[in-house]
Amino acid sequence: MSNERDPQLDALLESASRPRPELDVLADVASGLGYVRAERFAERVYESLFYAIATGKIAPGNKLPTELELAALFEVSRPVVRQALDRLREDRLVDSIRGSGTYVRAKPDLMGGMPAVDPARRVGHILEGLELRMVIEPECAYLAALRRSSDDLHDMDRMLTGYEEADASGAIAHHYDYGFHQAIAAATSNQRFVQVLKSLEYDVSHAVNVMRHLVHSEPWKRTRAAIDEHRHLYRLIQAQDANGARNVMRSHIEKAKSRMLNSGSEH
After folding, report:
1. List of residues 6+ apart from 217 with CB closer than 8 A
2. Is 180 part of a structural domain of the chain?
3. Which of 74, 104, 134 is the endpoint of a domain?
4. Is residue 11 in some structural domain?
5. pLDDT at residue 82 in the model
6. 174 and 61 in one domain?
7. What range defines the domain where residue 239 resides?
8. Between residues 242 and 27, which one has the greater pLDDT?
9. How confident is the model at residue 24 (pLDDT cuts 50, 70, 90)?
10. 208 DSSP assignment
11. CATH number of residue 98's parent domain
12. How many other C-beta atoms lie within 10 A of the C-beta of residue 37?
């Protein structure tokens, strides 16, 4: 028998052993391990800034933080921040002045990023999102209480602390609010929950802000009561009180719905 190796076989073996980063990405996506595109980070920055503008945290005519400051705030790169700012400009929410910075328009067009549909359909869209959250998030809280690790608790506490500090200083806080809910979903150790929550975040938060603008209601205020709801939920998950966490999360979403639909009420 000849000891010569088949050149075609050698080529196949070499190809099989070569790193394939594109396959790694596909594997992550297929298994729900949370592969995140740069566009998703940019969308998060965009929605948080939109929220700050719509709720008056950054008032018309005021200057936005610099690109470097925003990159540090959101823990992203400057190119990601630029993508978000480009979208804000496209939606006629801000203007950039060379050498000076980026400013909220005197009359920002909060409708610029929404489809041209009637207000009733927008409200229905929001309520559908809240209905889905009512099904998903209480179960996330239940499983998180059973499965959470010390790292999961650290992530939740970090988001809560950032939320409280941002609220106290009047800074942008929306991403901390969402980050807390995302940390709970991650603590379930089921990445499908995380993916569902990600699919809801930007869609619902943008629509909610527009609806508040349409009914001319007062801007949402980060109240002590809302923060206390989060802290209560955190303590139940920490204590591994699964049923308590489920019930408090359901109550929290019901109260969020009530605050959203009642004009002039606080968030």
Report:
1. 263, 264
2. yes
3. 104
4. no
5. 92
6. no
7. 119-263
8. 242
9. very low
10. H
11. 1.10.10.10
12. 10
